[in-house]
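Suppose a classmate hands you a notebook page containing two proteins, each written out with its sequence and a corresponding row of structure tokens. How would you begin to make sense of it? This section walks through that situation. The first entry is reproduced here exactly as it would appear on such a page.
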Amino acid sequence: MFNRNRFLRRVAAIASISLVTGCSLLSDSDPESEGPIVVGTTSAPSTLDPAGAWDGSWELYRNIFQTLLAYPSGATSPQPDAAESCAFTDNSSRTYRCKLRSGMKFADGDPLNAEAVQHSIDRIRTINAPGGPAGLLGSLDRVQTSGDREVIFHLNQPDATFPFVLATPAMSIVDPDDYPANSLRKDTKVYGSGPYKLQSYEDGKQAVLVGNGNYRGFADRQNDAVTIRYFQDSSTMVKALRDKQIDVTYRGLAADDIIALQQHDTADLQLVDGAGTDISYLVFNPKDPWAKQPAVRKAVAQVVDRGAISHKVYRDTVDPLYSMVPKGLTGHATSFFDDYGDPSVPKARKMLTDAGITRPVPLTLWYTTDRYGSETALMFKEIKRQLEASGLFTVTLKSRPWKTYVVGYQKGEYPVFGRGWFPDFPDADNFIAPFVGAKNALGTPYPAKEITDRLLPHSRAESDRAQTVKDMEQAQQVLVDDARLIPLWQGRQYVAASDDVSGGEQALDPSTIMMMWMLHRKTSW
């Protein structure tokens, strides 16, 4: 296996933590004191079946399922979890073997063996659910077992990123007796082997987690139970935090609430502020008569003022982004700024007139109301204002809740729509590969053959990821030239918590997924 420590960044709250209010987050704790820790978020699962989700549902999966590999607190590369060991066993990064820990069981006592791992991976590709994670397994040819504890992954091409794929919650191991090989589960039951069991679940409201006594892995639970409450907006969530109805908030904090916490407006709350790799971007649907025209897409890219969005809407709690690959990852470039420079209406007008477009372009922009935070609607109003102020566009805004929003873009209903991306794993590959090809994460086929047929295969054959910079930069330039995707901003990660809760700065893995087992209550000062 290659040395990933050379290029991975410990994102979120590890690299640049600052405690804005409250006391230190580090102290001893008694995991049985004062009941479950209650965590608030605006990111509710879209499904409880790992084979059906390539989205924020992973937050829950990480805590109730296991994967062969995962990230212990402080790790910057995947480490064994359900596995005892994993490694490439050839020189071409095409055969990857994992040996399971002995005596593994699911929460209900059923054995977790090599057959269960094979079943879990195979059903992802067999079901191939719309919006599901099958696209992550593009380099996998077949899965083989040897006895009860050994799993061999045969790849169809060299892929040094495959260990990262296995570490994503998409590859959660499920019980073959409870998860059909050909269809998704539709109920609210979960049979996993993670640090917690899902005791109960109310769709869109809450998930109640209790300790799993059968768990065997690296996680050292610092609490006995966690309840996750799902909110529609930041203000309601923060009010619940102030009223001590919840202990921690994560994902979806609005800029106004972040600023208020930064300004020390309360003495009994704390804010963990760390670098993030989540991004926001626009997607153009090539089936739409206007969005399919390169001149229209490039004119939008030329007019959009990312700095104004970051400052006016998000109050500088996010940073302008000029590439689909965020800052902090090896291979990041500023390709959109290099090609377009500052926003310019005259340049955009020339792009359109050169293409024979002389009247305002009608565009309909879609966004989701309950996925990426309370500012999403304000951001789209600002984008509408910018585009219409140029005199080059007339814009209609439309929105839907996430669950129906996903269905809409998968069916190709939206001419232009907004998406956010939290990385599957911290590599530039993961900010390019999911968005291109016939089966991508966006539901809009994007046959970028220069990327899919040359640049990605070439870079994945390189075990030293620091040597992939040239390929990643070229891939980003292809995205700029096509302007099918327009990056807007790169976020930061904020965890707000009551001052009696510790572990927030240790609870985020390199994909900024919260490991709930790291949270605990303080018992000493």
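The notebook's second entry, a different protein, reads as follows.
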Amino acid sequence: MQKMLRMPLLLALLSCLMMTPFFSQAEDTPSQTEAEQPVKVNVGTALPALQKRLDTLKQQVSAVKTDKKFTALNDDALKLAEDANKLAVVLAPQLTQIQAQLDVLGPAPAPGTVTETAQVVGQRKQLNNSKTLLTTQIEQVKAIAVNAQNLSSQIYGLRRDALKTQIALNTGSILGEKFWSPLISPNEKDTQRFDEFGSQVSDAWHQAWDEDWYFGSGFYLLLALVIGLFGRKALDRPMNWILPRWLPQGRFRRSFLACFTTLSTTVTLGISMQLICYIFTRLPDTSRLVMDFADQLVELTWFSAIIAGLGIALLSNSHPSWRLPGIADPLAKTLASFPILLAASIFIFGIIEQLNGLVGSSIDATLFGNGLSALLVALNCLIAPIRVNRMRRKMRAEGEQTEARSTMAGLIHLVISLTAFVILLALLIGYIPLARFVTFELLWIGLVVSCLYLLIHFVVDLCEAVFSPTTQSGKILQSTLSVNERHLSLASTLFSALGKTTLLLMALVALLNGTFGTTTPLELVSKIADIWGGKGLESMNIIPAHAVNAVLCLVVGWYILRSSRRWLDHEFLPKTTMDRGLRASLVTLFTNVGYVLLIMLTLSMLGIEWNRLAWIVSALSVGIGFGLQEIVKNFISGLILLTERPVKVGDLVSISGVEGDIRRINVRATEIQLSDKSTVIVPNSQLISQNVRNATMGNAQGVATIALTFPLDIDPEQVRNLLLEAYGLHESILEAPAPSVSFKELGPNGIVLSVTGYVNSPRMVSGTRSDLLYEILKMLRAAGISLSQTQTMVLEQPHRVTVEDEAKGQ
């Protein structure tokens, strides 16, 4: 019995011992829960603060242009992303705790099964609302963190792009360790980005050679290699056979061959690269990054191919006799590798720059690529002139004749050398953005100028070939339109001028609205803008980029206007039937209108609006009322003279006792050349307001009139016939109206006869009259007729009346 009583006691004691750890653990649980309580954060205040910081950063980024501010904003964006991630971490345990409480309560029972108390229902509803709110807040916080990261990436890209325009930023010399750091110790992020891109390219490559795609990939690759390596040579052979047989003899053959060589080189290389890229872009699983890289690679190939094609065409080592510029054969052979090396350099380092932009590489990697590309281009541009000068000295030493260098060729040579020197100097002192800017500006301007040179020669030679009377097309036009050779020559000059003008305008637009690597207008960022300050300039929106565009527009416009004026004055207008005065008036009027338009266009390029010039007009109005009144009056009078043409260049005029020929009508005054070759400057307003005698207006004829006095005993009929005979024998006297003799006067001194004859121009009167006097005098002496004797006045001493005389008279 006692044993039976002891067994429950032992079991109870054992149970107590076994439950002791659980009780101790249960006692410890509250303390641990208190230790793991989440940090309480006022989300209602922290979340709007983060959103406000993000909005502020976005506003600041849109107005920042300096590298220093970009760096500060990038740090702020990264700090914002870090703070948002910390807030998300803090909010996560709160969401876990609420979910745990909901799990304890369990899901809401189905209607009609179990009835819960109002307290449990309210608690579950409150927890669900808290869970929804907290989930939304966490999502907002994560969105802010993601937006901050994206903003940092955008700032990084903007900062990298800003390096292209921040030419005043010193980033370190190419001789420094920092410049070579991407090659010696590359950035981990850059390595990761390039590895990811390389893996995408590798995946596309392996996919291209899968069973479903390998046949097409092999075909496109083989076709691309054949076109790229042998395409241009295959096109040159039939063209060499066609040119001498189909095209007329003349300069058009060489310009056509140069254009064809450029076009064939560009097209074959461009199509070859497009076929290679199509191997990857046609695949369905090719990444967006690889496709973008392929598109940019094709564009870069076209640009590099144009440079190589232009160099090969202009040097024309395959056809030296058809070379367009005047370059000696040894010099052309010396420069044969230059365009190919330049195009290859641009292609290789252009790929590096495009990769940096696509993968979002670091600033150091971007500067490294920009610096190497600028360095290689500068070395090419500097070595080529040195090799040319060395070869030219060698040719002179050997007695060989070099080409006659023009001033323009020497200027181009000097500009390229100086530009290359500036690029190298900028790289050495640490201005890599400046070196990149100058490099690609040099490439773009050189490309545009080379294309302009080639196309202008092509257009001029084409017009001469089409309208030449010796070619088949010229003969067809001459017989069809019934025109003479002068009209064909005039049409050739006109159409070639229209073509050159169109090409010049296109070149100007290309220079102003694009540079290699950018599609926006020329953008220059300089610290000079900070100095400009002031409300007046700010209201006119004058910025350095616009100033450079305006200067470029002014220089190119002035050159176009000057060339057009020379073309009108010496080539086009002399082939027309206009008289010299009308031609001079048209040239002057064209020049004045051209200068006005050029000034207006330059002001427009500066960004100056006409309504901003009200204060200038107000200031000028006072000056016009005083000192500028005469200038404005003479200017308006000059425009009236050029439009109404009461007098024109070449007219013989007489004004205020001054008589001479008009040589030039300027904006303010007119130049009148006298008979002694001296020049009188007459204000234009006097030619409008005063009486002016125009002796040559309306094709006026000159009148040669001679009045002679004969004795009373002559035979008037004989003298009349003799005078008419003298006038009729002179070659300058016109037959119609016929010469005439009129009886002017009959007096005690003799008979006055006046003989009149007409000549073609008033300028012939003086010389013709002198010749006639010589001839008439000879004829009178031969006929024994003398002129009336000169009357002599005899002055006698008056008689002096004396007193004796008076007395005698009486």
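A careful reader of the second entry would note: The first helix runs from residue 2 to 35.
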